[in-house]
Amino acid sequence: MELRLAGTTVLVTGAGQGLGRAIGLAFAQEGAWVAFHYNSSAEGAQKAAAEVNATGGAALAVHADLRDDAAVEAAAELRILTWICVEDAGRIIHPRIVDGQIAGSIAQGIGGALYEHLIYDADGNLSTGSLLDYLMPTSAEIPELVIGHVANAAANPLGVRGVGEGGTLGPAAALAGAVGDALGVAVDQLPITPSGLWELMQPELPQ
Questions:
Q1: Preceding peptide of 157 cis, ω within 30°
Q2: DSSP state letters, 142-182
Q3: H or E element at residue 84
Q4: Hey, which residues does 76 pair with through a beta bridge?
Q5: What does the alpha-carbon distance between residue 169 and residue 165 come to, in Å, rounded to a whole number?
Q6: Backbone angles phi, psi at 185, to 5 degrees
Q7: Which residue, 19, 64, 76, 121, is most buried by CB atoms nearer than 10 A?
Q8: Where do the domains of the chain lie, and which CATH numbers do they carry?
């Protein structure tokens, strides 16, 4: 078995072995994206990826040449380079608090679009009920935020508006639209996990 780190993706060879699945699951529980590599038979890698995904992690099986950086592309990693948001907060009383609310809501929205997944078993029990198996974005996953303001006073005595909601709603549509435009496919399921993104990149697979 061999491990290779590629950004936030962990590439695991020898995935058909129990140790490979266990290590991949451990990395997934820490928030890493896991790619189980196979050379010939895909059965072991696909089983390992399914076990990780069943616990709320993000994993897929890939056949890639681990000797070069093409493996990172095969792992279907989605990176946000810069996030620009302009909000109409009305009359801004405390700019730092307003910017903090916007930044936090954007992080929450990105989490829902890319990481956070409620998974239920066949009996309807929640399988992703703790932070050990429920992925949330950290500061490492949140891109540079550029926040701007349009100040139009609201029709209330203070002229203020709420700013905590807009950032939670925009990322889902923005990221799904960006992936759809890039790949020429319809993205109709969230979160956009590496395994789901990889499937969208395979034209021979039914969408």
A1: no
A2: S-EEEEEE-----SSTT-B---SSHHHHHHHHHHHHHHHHH
A3: strand 82-87
A4: none
A5: 7
A6: -130, 165
A7: 76
A8: 2-77 (3.40.50.720), 82-191 (3.30.365.10)
